[in-house]
Amino acid sequence: MTMRTSGSLLAAVALSVLCLPGSALTAQSGADVARAFREANEAALLAEFRELLSYPNRARDTEDINRAAAYIRDRLIEVGVESSLLRIEGAPPLVYGELMVPGAERTLGIYVHYDGQPVDPTNWTHPPFEPTLYTASMDAGGVPRAFPEPGDAVDPEWRIYARSAGDDKAPIAAILPVLRSFHEAGLTPSSNLIFFFDGEEEAGSAHLGQYMDMQRETLDDIDIWLFFDGPAHQSGRPQLTFGVRGAMGMEVTVYGATRNLHSGHYGNWAPDSGNILARLLATMKDDQGRVLVEGWYDTVEPIGEEERAALEGMPDYDAELKRELGMAHSEGEPASLPERLLLPALNIRGLTSGNTGELARNVIPNTAVASLGIRLVKGTEPDHMRQIIVDHIRAQGFHVVAEDPDMETRLRHPRIAKVTGGGGSPAARTAMADPYVQEVIAAARAAADRAFGQGSLVLAPGMGGTLPLHLFTDVAGKPAIIVPVANHDNNQHAPNENLRIANLWYAIDLYAALLTMPETVF
After folding, report:
1. Is the per-residue pLDDT at 9 higher than 80?
2. pLDDT tens digits along 352-404
3. How many domains does the chain have?
4. Residue 191 domain-assigned (yes or no)
5. Is pLDDT of 30 > 50?
6. How do residues 146-203 score in pLDDT, each as one tens digit?
7. Average pLDDT value for the chain
8. ω before 334 within 30° of 0 (cis)?
């Protein structure tokens, strides 16, 4: 790596700041200590974030992901965390850490993932693992600029562009200086801390459950899990989120003739696979966005009183969001986006049947394929939802198969649909009434009020994305909530992913508040 630096620079600067005359650390809160450290070291913090972002981190690239994991482990050790790499053959390592506090009555589990989405560098303005600093977002007319030198002022509206800048290396870049500031100040968190840094979240976290089993005895002591992941509310306000949607995918293939046919010779006679598929898909959803598959909404678990109150208190942002996205209407109107996220969704992810544009040919395609994207909510299980979709397809007169039909099957059934896929990740949600959740809300509200103004924190019962939350809530039986910090327009999973520097500074404030929140006796 060309930009490698160690924590020694930050440590030296930190000691000089924390030893200034009149710095009464005993009178300072954890948030005060972390903010003072950040304000004195902003350029150095950006340099360390830059180095972290320079590590390629696709889960399936073994050499890269191991190098990234080792870097994070070493940085945790530098700030006083007992850290190691847990390994399962064929899987990225899990970065594990412990910081035990004598006398602490509460244990926090902190989940972050350090892997990222695949990249196609040709779609990026700059190489995705060569972090580039901009004076503002590209969309707002920002231009590249050099990273600041120590002592230079840092504009909080700057953006740093790189893969995983927002999802999900930003939390790592924020938690490290918080722990360093505490370490150098002799300040201890108010909770024991267990760190679980996942190296394959973007690849489905296939081995996360096994890693949890490896540390089961320690994890059993955790009182609440904090998932450091996700973006702020679309309004730009900070938020906490108490549930995630599950996700699954299916493909439906319908058939015409055994081969593509000339549309002049066979049009009006041979079955038109594209039309057959279009008519089938139209039976699944009405013009208002309501899914017509029988039983689609029957098992949805209702939200509680606290969640209902939080939903009603969320910003009314739909009109502005529709203007931003160029939408004249939304599905399910007048229901708001947060309300719609609490219902299972059925979307068409992709369609294929022949070619379009200059590649279009005068043929009747022999097959047409639809890729379905299903988002699940609490109470809707993947196997059940797959089955009712299959039942719906059968009810439209299709013979459903799992493999391409043979000639005998083709000659017996006028309509055939092959259905593949399923499985996926279940939804999860934690009750806001949980006492440990209430402690986190209080600490996050204080940090948000300080950074954004009174009453700025948004409490969202659910978010649209998917995380392996169910392993912690349903399997391990622990409350778990999402603590997002990235800007909502961070281009998550897309080219030119970025992080607004102000959001990194807020993350430092927030994590310091959470790590030093007072204990409550239940």
Report:
1. no
2. 999 999 999 999 999 999 999 999 999 999 999 999 999 999 999 999 999 99
3. 2
4. yes
5. yes
6. 999 999 999 999 999 999 999 999 999 999 999 999 999 999 999 999 999 999 999 9
7. 93
8. yes
Q: Is residue 78 within 8 Å of 165, Cβ to Cβ?
A: no
Would you say residue 287 has pLDDT above 70?
yes
402 & 290 share domain: yes
- The angle, 0 to 180 degrees and rounded to 10, between the axes of the packed helices 170-185 and 42-53 is 130
Q: What is the CATH number of the domain that holds 341?
A: 3.30.70.360
Given 399, 425, 451, which residue is the final one in a domain? 425
pLDDT tier at 521, thresholds 50, 70, 90: low
Locus of tokens 């940085």: 75
What CA–CA distance (Å, rounded) separates 21 from 438? 38
Query: Does one domain contain both 379 and 482?
Result: no
Laid out side by side, the sheet with 144-145 consists of: 144-145, 132-134, 159-161, 498-500
| Non-local CB neighbours of 358 within 8 Å, separated by 6+ positions | none
Residues 488, 505: Cα–Cα separation, whole Å: 15
Q: Which amino acid is at 378?
A: K
Rounded to whole angstroms, the Cα distance separating 489 from 506 reads 16
Q: Which two tokens stand for residue 384?
A: 């059940």
pLDDT computed for residue 42 by the predictor: 98
Residues 269 and 145 in one domain: no
Residues 488 and 236: their CA atoms lie apart, in Å, by 6
Q: Element (H or E) spanning 364, and its range?
A: strand 363-364
Dist. CA 113–CA 251, nearest whole Å: 29
Question: Of 366, 391, 425, which residue constitutes the final position of a domain?
Answer: 425
Distance (Å, rounded) from C-alpha 96 to C-alpha 73?
8
pLDDT over 90, % of the chain? 91
In sequence order, the β-bridge partners of residue 92 are: none
What range does the domain containing 177 cover? 8-244+427-515
227-271 pLDDT per residue, tens: 999 999 989 999 999 999 999 999 999 999 999 999 999 999 999
Identify the burial level of 119 via C-beta atoms within 10 angstroms of its C-beta, where 0-12 means exposed, 13-18 middle and 19 or more buried: buried
* Secondary structure (H, E, C), 392-421: HHHHCCCEEECCCCCHHHHHHCCCEEEEEE
193 shares a domain with 171: yes
Percent of the chain with pLDDT over 70: 94
Please check whether residue 475 lies inside any domain of the structure. Answer: yes
Contact 102, 83 (CB under 8 A): no
Does 204 map to a domain?
yes
CATH, residue 64? 3.40.630.10
Query: Within a domain: residue 2?
Result: no
Exposure string (b/e) for 468-480, b if CB count within 10 Å is 16 or more?
A: bbbbbbeebebbb
